[in-house]
From TrEMBL:
Subunit structure: Associates with the 50S ribosomal subunit.
NCBIfam families: GTPase_EngA, small_GTP
Gene: der
Residues where GTP 2 binds: 182-189, 229-233, 294-297
Xref: CDD domains: EngA1, EngA2
Full protein name: GTPase Der
Annotated family: Belongs to the TRAFAC class TrmE-Era-EngA-EngB-Septin-like GTPase superfamily. EngA (Der) GTPase family.
Amino acid sequence: MPKPVLAIVGRPNVGKSTIFNRIVGERIAIVEDKPGVTRDRIYSSAEWLNKEFNIIDTGGIEINDEPLMVQMRYQAELAIEEADVICFIVNGREGITSADEEVAQILFRSKKPIVLGVNKMDDPSMHDRLYEFYSLGIGDPKPISGSHGIGLGDLLDEVIKQFPSQTEDVYDEDTIRISIIGRPNVGKSSLTNAILGEERVIVSDIPGTTRDAIDTPFSKDGQDYVVIDTAGMRKKGKVYESTEKYSVLRALRAIERSDVVLMVINGEEGMIEQDKKIAGYAHEAGRAVILVVNKWDVVEKDDKTMLNFEQKLREEFLYLSYAPIIFLSAKTKRRMQHLLPLVNEVSENHNLRVQTHVLNDVIVDAVTMNPAPTDNGGKRLRINYATQVAVAPPTFVLFVNDPELLHFSYRRFLENKIRETFNFKGTPIRIIARKKN
Ligand code: GDP
Ligand code: GDP
């Protein structure tokens, strides 16, 4: 279930972000009011030959004011810690620099699979320069051109070959994996403790085995869960760990591994831009989401406070209109008892499979009531048939006369109709249009 990770390492200006963008491609936005995490471009999912993986541009995690060599060391360490395969990029026009040599040594010692990409080889006449790079001692240099998109296929072939055959997930399918996300001090650890401290919760002592996990498995009322921690108990003191982008990266990785994301918001402060980015990622990744407003005990309240806060949250998180909001206090435990039942409910909805005939009734009714508008050329979307093709998140395929005719607002309309009929509270749903044959 967890996807393998590729990290790109290299000196500034060798072309890392160009290559990153090439590999990631212009991914089709699932929603149009999209929150834009993917524009941040340090971490993204990608695919090559039907193999899905995640990719990190370590150069995007800047460590301020450090000399080049120190920065390079951090980048390399970060890659070693986070990635299954490291793609080391050098500049074919400049040749080997001492920074390259040092990074190559660090990477080599880590014993992680390394693929060496020699960039800016824009035309084949430059390929003689490749041989020099054998002296880095980390394998066959692959000539590439990020800006021209040359050689990336061969590079990725090699990367994929080096991925571990199976990144195993230690938890069985019925385990609900919960990540608790939010910026420092919102109460993530307190919330984790409050969940675990509930009566009749049995904390199992299976140690987390995945590399970045301080996972705490537990069960309650016969349901297995695991809390994936991001607050972190990992080796402290690494410079990159204190950078904001790195903490975002870790949050994204935890989201990736989870089924249900608890997005924790400080009731005293409301949300900030970074919360939105992270929540947006959870949405794009298709995870179930609950907005947890913590520290509600210290908020001065009257009978409108909750409603006002909720309204503000809804405005900030338009694309998360399906996410339930729970107001609680991890400290006083007020309303804590409602949290796990809500987790169970959204998890169930996330895995909900609807009956095809009911789904088609809903679509037919929706279309009858409000036919799709015609486009400029007078063409109108016709939906022949709908079917659910996946769960987690529930994904629907509409077979239509012309997929291009399914526009954002009509897609929204159909989504709302589907949501009115089925209980998809807490889960994103996806609607894909396919041309009927
Ligand atoms: P980063 O700092 O390693 O992320 O490097 P960038 O991706 O920002 O690229 C640095 C510069 O090199 C930019 O001006 C790119 O347009 C250029 N560049 C990237 N890839 C190539 C390439 O394959 N050939 C050439 N000629 N220039 C490239
Ligand atoms: P984290 O950094 O997100 O893991 O946050 P912590 O769980 O360490 O909490 C940060 C601070 O907020 C600590 O001093 C907690 O005692 C406090 N805190 C956490 N939850 C609550 C709450 O529900 N109410 C109040 N009043 N304080 C809380």
